[in-house]
Amino acid sequence: MELWFAFGLLCAEIVLWSLRWLWLGNDPPVEKSNSTPPPHEAQETKESPSVPVSKFAENLIQLESNRIVPTDPKKWKCRATGQRENLWLNLSTGFIGAGGPKFDGGEGIGSMFRHFIAGGRKYPLAVKLESIGPTGALVYSYASEERGFVSDPFLEKHLAHFGITLEKPAIGQLSLP
């Protein structure tokens, strides 16, 4: 039983590194590090030509809300768990939730995915808060027909709904929402 468990973990790690390799421009995997990637790495990911435009972006439903996301990252936290890392903002509801497992093997909670399910699968787009910068941000779609990273040509407008501008520098690490 323990051997199968170890084999399953190894397979999962291989899949995650393979996906990371594809999404980040085919850079080979590197040793795990506690440091954050340089800002240029995040910018290359956001501008990758292989990331499709979300079909939900143009007519994205944004619920009326007086929620303003704090500009201080120290004030961000998952509304479901209180976690302060790996946070994503649902671009329709304003819910801030923890993402899934990080590509570097770090743990993730998955509150954002549970929020998507609880919302009747109507609000698919989420943006990684730590990735927001002058060139855009990492956007993920939970919709079954485009599940994965996508681009949002209307991102600036969608973020402005919650009081966010694209002027702050990108920080953080790539992870699954």
Can you offer a commentary on this structure?
Helix content is 25%, strand content 10%. The chain has helices at 2-23, 39-46, 111-118, 155-160, and strands at 87-90, 96-98, 125-128, 139-141, 148-150. Strands 2-1-3-4-5 form a 5-stranded antiparallel beta sheet, covered by helices on one side. The chain is globular, with a radius of gyration of 16 Å. Mean pLDDT is 74; it is low at 19-47 and 169-175.
Shape: globular
Mean pLDDT: 74
- Please bin the fraction of helical residues: 10-25%
Give the spatial strand order of the biggest sheet.
Answer: 2-1-3-4-5
Radius of gyration: 16 Å
Number of discrete helical segments: 4
Question: How large a portion of the residues is in β-strands, by DSSP E?
Answer: 5-15%
* Class from helix and strand fractions: alpha+beta
- Which residue ranges are poorly predicted, with pLDDT under 50 across at least 5 consecutive positions? 19-47, 169-175
Give the end-to-end Cα distance, rounded to a whole number of Å.
30 Å
Number of strands: 5
* Largest sheet geometry: 5 strands, antiparallel
H/E series: HHEEHEEEH
